[in-house]
Design a protein that fits this description.
Helices cover 24% and strands 32% of the residues. It is α+β, with helices and mostly antiparallel strands. The chain has a 5-stranded mixed sheet, covered by helices on one side. The termini are far apart. Pfam families: Ub-RnfH.
Length: 94
């Protein structure tokens, strides 16, 4: 590995599919650049990448966040139910 490259992963999952791509990106790359290099948009054209939130290891980040060695870029689907409301409904039905 060149000293100016980082090993990272880009991942996305839904009920129907999973995407995990290991990449080497130049040092100083951002989350947005890593997503573009992963070709996720080409492989899953049905995704609206602009509508998805992103993070690194389950911590929400912005697209301009600079990556570090071994980061895992995650794209998060919108929630279909509010977790707090779901817990309240379950508790009320008991």
């Amino acid at each position: 590995m060149a000293s100016d490259a980082l090993n990272i992963e880009v991942c996305y999952a839904s009920d129907e599919l999973q995407f995990l791509q290991a990449l080497q990106v130049p040092a100083g790359s951002t989350i947005a650049q890593a997503i573009a290099l992963s070709e996720l948009a080409r492989r899953l054209p049905q995704l609206d990448l602009q509508a998805l939130q992103v993070g690194v290891y389950a911590k929400k980040k912005t697209l301009d966040t600079v990556l570090r060695e071994h980061d895992r870029v995650e794209l998060y689907r919108p929630l279909i139910a509010d977790p707090k409301q779901a817990r309240r409904r379950r508790k009320a039905s008991v």
